[in-house]
Amino acid sequence: MENANNRSDLQAPTSGCSLDDIGEFHRDTAVTFGVFDGIHIGHQAVINTLLQHAGEQQLMSALVGFYPHPLAFLAPERCPSLLTPLSKRVEILQQLGIDKVIMLSFDAQIAAMSPAEFVKKVLLEKCRARHVVVGYACQFGKDRAGNADRLTALSQEYAFDVSIVPPTEIEGAPVHSTRIREALVRGDLRCGSQLLGRPYSLLGNVVHGDGRGKEIGFPTANIETQNQTCPPNGVYAIRAKLGEQWLDGVLNIGVRPTFNGTTVQVESHFFDFDEMIYGKSIEVFFVEKIRSERKFPNLEMLVQQIRRDITDAAKILEASTAFVPECHLKGNIT
Length: 334
Fold this sequence. Notes:
The protein is α/β, with parallel strands linked by helices and 334 residues long. The protein folds into 2 domains: 7-173, HUPs (Rossmann fold); 201-319, Elongation Factor Tu (Ef-tu), domain 3, CATH 2.40.30. Helices cover 30% and strands 25% of the residues. Strands 5-4-1-2-3-14 form a 6-stranded parallel sheet, with helices on both faces. Strands 8-9-12-11-10-13 form a 6-stranded antiparallel β-barrel. The chain has a two-stranded antiparallel sheet with strand order 6-7. The chain is elongated and about 75 Å long. Mean pLDDT is 91; it is low at 1-12 and 324-334.
């Protein structure tokens, strides 16, 4: 595993890089490419196949991901919400054992490439690909003209191997990012987590709110989640990771109708915790929904309900086996 112990190489990028920013590869590779939002169990099947071939052929494993989503450049009005922000995406990919992770900006240069140009300039010249692994539904090149069949044809022209990974199915349907988003939006956390292969989480920085939670005795951490997919408004039992510290708590998604709010906010109250954490990054994992959001006739009734929510969340978390392993980051990022 290249640079597996080089911790200085493990700083997560904040944006995708350009094609010209990709450094020189010193070994031939088995490579895959795609958006990989969610890195769900279908993506993991592709990655496992990649690692298998890399090991058998003594190649370096490499993944070229597109960030942001190609639709953010091509048709922003149709760009889907995120399942995994960039830093989380890279973290998971490294945990899975990829030697080299490249997050490539989908820009005008990439968008204009024909399928053959993408294979030649990105996969062969930049990544020294000798084996390319993709999912059955891959699309690439200008106007998404490239697919698995086109890649196979190009492999014969340019002399590299190709492996096409069939769909991973759950309950008779293929696993894909759109299906996960749809499950989460309708509040089906069980399905979303099953398709992801892990509990769904939101990752963001803690920002200042209006302080209402502290005023009524339940200080909250407001989390700036940006364009991540959120489950329906309501109250959830959660586990959160703050640095190396794990916290239990409750999370509210909603507009806070009792205070006549209009903007959706994500705010967490952590049990037995009173540190100042403004500006810090935190990840919250959804364990179970407690109730939907509703408006209370007065502040006293809201406070009583929050107390019940905390009691319910504590019981849920005490009985829950949901956990997230500590990160063991590996690899090398460009």
